[in-house]
Amino acid sequence: MTASVVEKAMRISAVAHKDQKRKEGDVPYITHPAMVALLLARNGFRETVVAAGLVHDVVEDSGISIEVLERELGSEVAAIVASVSENKDLVWEERKTQYVKSIREGNEDVKAVSIADKIHNLECLLLAYAKEGDAVWSLFNRGMEKKMWFEKEMLTMFQETWAHPLVARYAELLEELKIAVAKTS
C-alpha cells in the first residue's frame, strides 16, 4: 500500500515547516498549510489541489525545489505550486505584481490554492488585529497601506477571472478588515 498524494504532501510540509512559526509568533507554521488544504477539501477540490495547498509555501520558505515536489507528488502538484510561488529575488512591489499576474493567468486549481491561502491569511490577520490593533502592521514588510493594496489587487483579479464562492468569502474578509481598521483610525 502506498501513501496518497495528500499524505505525502502533508509529510513534506510537516518536515519543511517543522521549526517555523507564523507571523503571530506563537503559532506553528504547519497550521497554515493544513488550514489551506482543509478549505480546499471542504470546497470539493481534487486531491492533487489539496496536496498543492499543503505544500504551497515549501518552495518559498524551505528551499525544497519544484523538481523535488514533481518527483514526490507529480507534475500537476508541482505546476500549481510553481504558479503560486513568489520570486523572492524581486523587490516586494515587483514580486507582488508578478504574483497577481501569475494567478490571473493560472487555471482554476492555481486560483483555488491562491485564494485559500489568502483567505486563511486574512482570517489570521483579523484575529491578530483584534488582539494587537495597529501594532500588527509591523509584521508586514511594507506595512498596512501596501498590504491592503495587495489584497485589493488580488480581490479585483479574482472577481474578474473566477466565478467561485471562495471569491465572495475573500471579499467579505477584506471588508471586515477595512471596517476594523476604520474603527481604530
Give structural attributes:
globular, 185 residues, mainly alpha, 0% strand, Hypothetical protein af1432
Quick structural gist:
The chain has 185 residues and is an all-alpha fold.
Describe the protein in words:
72% of the residues lie in helices and 0% in strands. The longest helix is centred in the middle third of the chain and has 25 residues. It starts with a helix and ends with a helix. It is globular, with a radius of gyration of 16 Å. The chain has a single domain, classed as Hypothetical protein af1432.
Could you give the topology of this structure?
Blueprint (H helix, E strand, L loop, with lengths): L4 H12 L14 H12 L4 H8 L3 H5 L3 H8 L1 H10 L7 H14 L2 H25 L10 H19 L3 H20 L1
Helix pairs in contact: 1-3, 2-3, 2-8, 3-6, 3-8, 5-6, 6-8, 7-9, 8-10, 9-10
Helix amount: over 70%
Whole-number mean pLDDT: 94
Number of H- or I-type helical stretches:
10
Q: What structural class is derived from the secondary structure elements? A: mainly alpha
Number of strands: 0
Outline the biggest β-sheet.
none
